[in-house]
Amino acid sequence: MTGWNDMQTRSFYESNARERARYLLDAGSFRELAGPEAQLSSPHLPVLDEAISFDDGVVAGLGKINGRPVFILSQEGRFIGGSVGEVGGAKMVGVFELALKMHEKAQVKYPNDESRWPAIVISFETGGVRLHEANAGLLAHAEVMELIQACRGKIPVLSLVGSKLGCFGGMGFVSVATDLTIVSELGRIGLTGPEVIEEVLGKREFDSADRGLIYRTTGGKHRYLMGSAAYLVEDSIAAFRDKVAAVLAEPYAKIAAKRAIGTPTLVEEQLELTALAAQLKPKDAYDIWAHFGNEKIAKSIPDLSTKEFLQQVKIRKGGGVS
Q: Hey, which residues does 58 pair with through a beta bridge?
């Protein structure tokens, strides 16, 4: 059997939801909540002659990272594209509610020790709402967004994006609404997936077969350079775990300062970026990268290793128009 130490070098991109959940946490600390043995599955899929999964594509659990209590959610892209339905959505909501209850008790018992307070880590891999049960999926999105707001000032909520499907649909918005997002180069975040854009607007507008274009538009390097992701890491479980551990060692106020959306200042920045896009009329992400100080290396950015990229790139630093 592959051990915890061996799994640390495993590709995050290649790992399934349960592997990511288990091995991001301290060795032996993972405890799954509402796992397959509970036989919770979508009540809607059998009616449509669709296969079910007894975790509904969401792994929920509790463990520790460097001794700190951490609730973890991990989506499985191999089950109906990581889509969010009634049961999976309820598991996500339930984890937030449990974390808030634990926080209340921990704050009373350890009022000055944030390391004893829980955190929430979400490993996203999804195309968005499950169309088979869209109303329930949309409700789950709304409830999770509401609970993220309820966690503000109390519980650090971290997003991890580095799995095969990326993070699209409403969950693309949810992922950047957390306190901060950690991505790998292979991570992708967007509201609308490439295939949907092509289907609606045509291949000339967006060619979903152009892998380079997709990553320049939604990939981890672009998200980090533009400031919607706080950190870019290598593609391994250990790299994500180490960054999460480093973040959770910081005071909550410092973590919250990494938010990409949700404050008046950040809204102003987004408006400035919209104005900048109208001004520049960029034809490709290369044009945006160059504008933010990467003129000499813009065309080579896709080919840089993560280490080289972090050493050379200039990222957007607040505001949009220069």
A: 75
